[in-house]
């Protein structure tokens, strides 16, 4: 019975390590996605100053190249620009919290926020 209990504890430990690794991987992927959308918003903002209706063209080209309709839809690209504009003055510490939130939650926050302070308070509440 002692061997059985040790075995069960050992397997449970393996399971916990695996779940911990999964969580770390998910956070890393989310962080990269959030950074990618931030940079995308930043780059589009540069072009938007030159040509107001550039987003449909960017969307069309990115979808053609990547075959990813959801991340590069016109709507999502507009969210990227809004995301960049709201968070462009965030400190490094603030952005580390911003990176922890899934994109779908950011979209909800962006839809209900007018400025950085309002959005950032919602981010902090969502992390609790």
Task: Tell me what the structure shows.
By secondary structure, this protein is an all-alpha fold. The chain is 80% helix and 0% strand. It contains 6 helices and no strands. It has helices at residues 2-50, 55-66, 74-87, 92-98, 103-111, 116-126. The radius of gyration is 20 Å and the shape is elongated. It starts with a helix and ends with a helix. The model has no long low-confidence stretch (mean pLDDT 92).
- The amount of helix comes to over 70%
Alpha-carbon distance between the two ends: 42 Å
Number of strands: 0
**Helices and strands: which structural class?**
mainly alpha
Largest sheet: none
Average predicted confidence as pLDDT: 92
Low-confidence stretches: none
Number of contiguous helices:
6
Radius of gyration: 20 Å
Please state roughly what percent of the residues sit in beta strands, choosing from under 5%, 5-15%, 15-25%, 25-35%, 35-45% or over 45%. under 5%
SSE order, one letter for each helix or strand: HHHHHH
C-alpha geometry: elongated
In short:
The protein has 128 residues and is mostly helical. It is built from six helices and no strands.
Name its key features.
6 helices, 128 residues
């Amino acid at each position: 019975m002692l061997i059985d209990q040790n075995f069960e504890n050992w397997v449970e430990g393996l399971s916990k390590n695996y779940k911990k690794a999964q969580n770390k991987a998910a956070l890393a992927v989310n962080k990269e996605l959030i950074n990618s959308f931030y940079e995308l918003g930043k780059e589009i903002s540069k072009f938007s100053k030159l040509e107001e209706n550039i987003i449909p063209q960017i969307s069309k080209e990115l979808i053609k190249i990547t075959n990813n309709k959801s991340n590069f839809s016109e709507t999502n690209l507009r969210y990227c620009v809004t995301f960049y504009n709201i968070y462009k003055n965030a400190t490094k510490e603030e952005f580390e919290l911003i990176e922890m939130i899934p994109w779908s939650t950011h979209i909800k926050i962006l839809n209900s926020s007018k400025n950085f302070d309002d959005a950032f308070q919602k981010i902090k509440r969502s992390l609790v």
